Amino acid sequence: MNVMLLIRIALAFTAVTMYVVPASAGFQEGYEAFSRGDYQTAIKEYRPLAEQGNRNAQYNMGLLYDFGNGVPQDHKEAHRWYEMAASQGHAEAQANLGVLYHKGEGVTQDFKQARKWFELAVANGDRLAMLKLGLMYERGEGVLQDYLHAHKWYNLAAADGIPNAAPLRDAVAKMMTPAQIAEAQRLAREWKLGAQ
């Protein structure tokens, strides 16, 4: 299983649990139905809220279509719901849009769009998107290959306890000079100070 898929699955499970507090009538019922695997009831509860503009319900509808829970898997439909939530600043929806663009699921593969959505997700508090940015810089996807920035993003993700970030950071560090590692650490500190 590749790292991007593992990140996406982790994001889906952590994101759903983040919205236990109902945003409006029906949301809690949808959450409880989703938690017990009753996806049809979850859809019934989430869809009206999502259509009324509830970004959390839109995001959860995106998850249902993205993973084919209770509906046929449909990345185009997942994209539609994620985009609605993302336009309202929903960080996890922004990160999942980044994944769709990165993998070319439901949309044409576009690394620049993926990077844009990952950067927005990080700016809105999604720490898993840091790992995704690190992967893009390490591989040179949509950006010039840049171990300094890969190390920076991995370092920030590792500091936030994101699984797999520290080993990825350490692997990239093996391809860098001590001066480059020090510079990457400085960039991470500066980013962290600017984000506060």
Outline the structure in words.
The chain has helices at residues 3-18, 27-35, 39-51, 55-67, 75-86, 91-103, 111-123, 128-139, 147-159, 165-173, 178-195. With 196 residues, the chain is mainly α. The chain has two domains: 1-126, Tetratricopeptide repeat domain (Serine Threonine Protein Phosphatase 5, Tetratricopeptide repeat); 127-196, no CATH class. It is elongated and about 55 Å long.
Question: What's the topology here?
Answer:
Layout: H1 3-18, H2 27-35, H3 39-51, H4 55-67, H5 75-86, H6 91-103, H7 111-123, H8 128-139, H9 147-159, H10 165-173, H11 178-195
Structural class: mainly alpha
Cα gyration radius (Å): 17 Å
CATH architecture of the largest domain: Alpha Horseshoe
Report strand %: under 5%
The third-level CATH topology of the largest domain is Serine Threonine Protein Phosphatase 5, Tetratricopeptide repeat
Tell me roughly what share of residues is in helical segments: over 70%
Number of DSSP-assigned strands = 0
Which stretches are poorly predicted, pLDDT < 50 over at least 5 residues?
1-23
Largest sheet: none
Any idea what the shape is? elongated
Short synopsis of the structure:
72% of the residues lie in helices and 0% in strands.
List keywords for this structure.
Serine Threonine Protein Phosphatase 5, Tetratricopeptide repeat; mainly alpha; 196 residues; elongated
